[in-house]
Amino acid sequence: MIGTLQCVVLDCTDVMELARFYRQLLGGEINRPDAQWAVGDAWATLHDAAGAPVLAFQGVADHRPPVWGAAEQQFHLDIRVEDLAAAHDAVVELGAWLLDDGGGDRAWRIYADPAGHPFCLVRH
Description:
Helix content is 19%, strand content 31%. By secondary structure, it is α/β, with parallel strands linked by helices. The protein has helices at residues 15-26, 84-94; strands at residues 7-12, 29-30, 43-47, 54-59, 77-81, 97-100, 108-112, 118-123. It folds into 2 domains: 7-59, Signal recognition particle alu RNA binding heterodimer, srp9/1 (2-Layer Sandwich); 77-123, Signal recognition particle alu RNA binding heterodimer, srp9/1 (2-Layer Sandwich), CATH 3.30.720. Strand 7 (108-112) and strand 8 (118-123) form a beta hairpin. A 4-stranded mixed beta sheet has the order 1-4-3-2, covered by helices on one side. It has a 4-stranded mixed beta sheet with strand order 5-8-7-6, covered by helices on one side. The longest helix is centred in the first third of the chain and has 12 residues, at 15-26. It has 2 helices and 8 strands.
């Protein structure tokens, strides 16, 4: 082993907007005091109560969101949920938008967060 995953960093134009979106989606605490992280106008963190790796949000003035399905897409997050329909309604209300519902037959749906990063809601 060379190292351990410290965090996942998402680029965006508004770090607090995206931090609040993911806090409402996943729970946790925004900018919890932690000697590892210097937070500010261009950087925010979300610590999950379950001890998962930190999600961090880095301000990038000219951020361009990835295009779902395009060759340059690099990664996405999978979020496990109990009720796919209820989770759909909740994330859309928070500002996400549906990218692909798979015709409604599969156990996951693909969304974009308010900054355009793709993520999937996956039925548990």
